[in-house]
Amino acid sequence: MSVSEVDLRPVSVPGPVPGEEPRTMAVLRRERDTLLARIEAGDPNGVERQHELGKRTARERLGLLLDEGSFVELGVFRRRGEAGPDTEGRRPHTDGVVTGTGTVEGRRVFVYAQDFTILGGSLGAEHASKIHRVMDLALDAGAPLIGLNDSGGARIQEGVAALDGYGGIFRRQVAASGVIPQISVVLGPCAGGAAYSPALADFTFMVRGTARMYLTGPDVIAAVSGEQVGHDELGGADVHGGRTGVAAVVHDDEDACLEDVRHLLSLLPDNNLSVPPAEPPTGAREDVRPRLADIVPVEPNKPYDMRDVVAEVVDDGDFFEVHEGWAPNVLCALARVDGAVVGVVGNQPMVLAGVLDSDAAQKAARFVRFCDAFNIALVTLVDVPGFLPGSAQEHAGVIRHGAKLLYAYCEATVPRVQVIVRKAYGGAYIVMDSRSIGTDLSLAWPGNEIAVMGAEGAVNVVHRRELRAAADPDARRKELVADYRERLMHPYRAPEEGFVDQVIDPVDTRAAVADGLALLRDKRREQPRRKHGNLPL
Q: Where is this region: Disordered (predicted)?
């Protein structure tokens, strides 16, 4: 049809229906506001049921998480399509997830909050599409992404489309890994394939009593294996916070949980091209801490709490510990030293004498890699007697898991300061950021012992024939142990050979760490070009 043939007559617009209010902009605006208010208010019965379960609604949660008045919602009018099974009368707006952007302490974040009051928060195609969009925006904007999970899982009525939606979420999480911080908060059920989303996040928070996460629920387990197990026993917050390591932080209530998410965000950068927000210097480089001379016993086998050492080294004694309940024989925390954010890794003599095992190695390795990805300097506090011996650990793959920690430190290019607080034996000394694997600055206290193993163990191995033949084996053993300590384990042996840069007074540890971080502030080290390494997963 040519342009001349196009019908250019004005379109006839129907007039107002008798008895109806004329269609004016004021009417359209009022209708829009009424619809929006109804959507935001939600179903009263659903809201009441949510509160009866001890849970807040999606919008209430976002109100706690974000700065007041900062939330901008996206996709509020999205609904399921008309076609398909089970759509009649079940096409609520938002499709069970609230998505958008807001600020936390003035910094931009992107969020989604699943709404259990709508279709049980189940994930269908539109629900997933909204999450995909906010994830794409977060990555494009270089801003943290926070997901609040409270969902019955994949929407069965939508079949493979729901599964495809989960796949799209996982693919985006992997693409964003190491580029923007990703935080997952589990505030209700998170079952089936949905559980992989928190597992892929950098940090996962859970709330006791309401949060539960598992691939296969109790009913299916009972039907398949006959095993009877409750929801909390199978996948509650304490299970994932203390046994599986999926949850980095566990809280008793939602308010405290979301407040802690805000705290964590204050210690993280927006993305991998920025640095964490710094606070004004605190005078750490001149700060003497007399208490550090008393916290750690000189005897290598006496316990103490490494948290007390950390509190004396970091600003205001304040640190954010992650995975506190899982593998507690190693401590991982974010803190500040002289205003700058650091990641702290330390052996914990209060638990298993501070030995490394499979879980501890995995915990520390993931934390080290996170810090390296987001330009957070590392401070490693060492007091380790070795790796946990025994067939159970060997068969659990302690070699492979220990290699993860070794790999993580070797790969890290951020500033790294090691402090040997007391003892450092065997392969555990190597993997705890020793000079041999690339730490930038190695400091040690005057009571340090660095050796292949403790003196008693070394003598029993090296001199076993002599001891067997001795007239008084116990007396001879004491002589040999004393000699071994004097020759090979004295505090200045490693510094003499260049494996330790400085032996410091314990009271000067905070100042020495701050000095070291200051001199390393402009460190630049490029890795060889490659697609990626082959981490021993």
A: 1-21, 81-100
Question: One of 167, 427, 438, 457 is an active-site residue; which one?
Answer: 427
Give me the number of domains the chain comprises.
3
The answer to whether residue 59 sits within a structural domain is: yes
Q: Would residue 428 show up in a list of annotated catalytic residues for this protein? A: yes
- Which domain, by its residues, includes 132? 46-265
Distance between CA atoms of 41 and 30, rounded to whole angstroms? 16
Closest CA to 384 of 429, 451, 436, 331: 429
User: Among this protein's residues, is 58 annotated catalytic?
Assistant: no
Specify whether 284 is catalytic.
Answer: no
pLDDT score for 194: 92
Q: Which of 142, 167, 178, 193 is catalytic?
A: 193
> Based on the domain organization, do 411 and 475 belong to the same domain?
no
- pLDDT in the model for residue 380: 98
Spell out, as residue ranges, where the chain has pLDDT lower than 50: 1-6, 87-88
Q: Give the dihedral of Cα atoms 525, 530, 534, 535; nearest 10 deg.
A: 30
H-assigned helices in 202-279: 218-225, 231-235, 237-239, 254-265
Query: From residue 369, how far is each of 201, 247, 373, 406, 536 by CA, in Å?
Result: 13, 17, 6, 11, 13
| Distance (Å, whole) CA 306 – CA 286 | 22
**CA nearest 537: which of 433, 405, 435, 427?**
405
Euclidean distance between CA atoms 349 and 330, whole angstroms: 9
Catalytic pick among 75, 192, 241, 454: 192
Alpha-carbon span 251 to 254, nearest angstrom: 7
Domain CATH number, residue 397:
3.90.226.10
Can you give the pLDDT at residue 10?
53
